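Reminder to self: keep the SMILES exactly as supplied, no canonicalising. Ligand is adenosine-5'-triphosphate.
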Amino acid sequence: MLIKVILHNSMDVKILEIIDLEIMYRVGRKSVIAVRDVSLAIEKREIRAVVGESGSGKSTLASAVLRVLPGNARIVRGSIMFDGVDLLKLPEREMRRIRGSRIGIIFQDPSATFNPVMRVGDHIAELLYVHRGTRWEEGLKVAESLVKRFGIPSERVYDYPHQLSGGMKQRFCIAMAIATNPELVIADEPTTALDVVTQMQVLSMLRELRDEYGTSIMFITHDLSLALSISDNVTVMYGGEIVEEAPSDDLRREPLHPYTQMLLECIPRLRQRLDFRRFEKESIELPSTRGCIFSNRCRYARERCLREEPPLIDLGGRRVRCWLYE
Ligand SMILES: Nc1ncnc2c1ncn2[C@@H]1O[C@H](COP(=O)(O)OP(=O)(O)OP(=O)(O)O)[C@@H](O)[C@H]1O
Ligand SMILES: [Mg+2]
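Structure tokens returned for the bound complex:
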């Protein structure tokens, strides 16, 4: 009986579980792999950062979860379990009920979220009408109180998108993403376009969201310092693969993968001048051999690394894809 209860609880903790996901894009006659061998879980109440440089597959992963991949993308294998249901097997009609309702979305460019001829508050009213059947006027009232919580005067919900500043728009997008009280929020570079102060405001809003409502957050960024400052756990991606995964504090204290070590060294200390020469020769070309994906940039690369791809090695509480830890 006890075992049953424990089993049930442990199954219950994960809100999202991506299993063995592989995604390709067709470009002309060629196919390129954008995401490979990705397994990753996000627990309830967890803030999980997904970090990686441009082209590492972060947005592809997010789009797959939301099922908004472009037409030339193909999911080769894998499953995406959301609250126990495989999203990849759902009919689009049911997916539409989840997207924007049980899974909230915040994109890098807030303008893309808005319809320029609708007042900003109408966007929230529309969401609530579609997903909850809330009357429009009532939805606007909800919008008023939501934006007020995020430091935006409530009367601004009657403005048009172009009347808001960039920072205000992004804070509004967050209000919109959480209007339906989603269980999971996917934020893809939500603060990249913002100044540092607004960036910090947005981060603390996301933290608040988790603390108050228990919302799980997948926070996508190329900025490791940002990732470490907001998240409980970090997944580091490189060339479409997970190369390291650890609790944020452990990763900060002791990064294991050479790529993560490099990323951490790139975080400039205050008043310290960055030595750009160290990064000059690095190529962002992925190696064409079947060895380690990071081998051509790795300072520890040995012969084996060029030949054989390391698995994601489980070190108990954290994982790393590197032969150094075999
Ligand atoms: N629509 C597309 N068609 C073809 N290839 C694509 C498409 N979108 C992305 N890719 C390729 O897939 C890989 C992963 O791209 P993705 O946009 O997921 O990376 P990212 O980590 O989000 O990068 P960024 O930090 O620049 O947003 C890259 O090699 C990219 O060139
Ligand atoms: Mg992206």
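Points to follow up:
Residues 266 and 278 are 10 Å apart (CA to CA).
The chain is about 35% helix and 25% strand.
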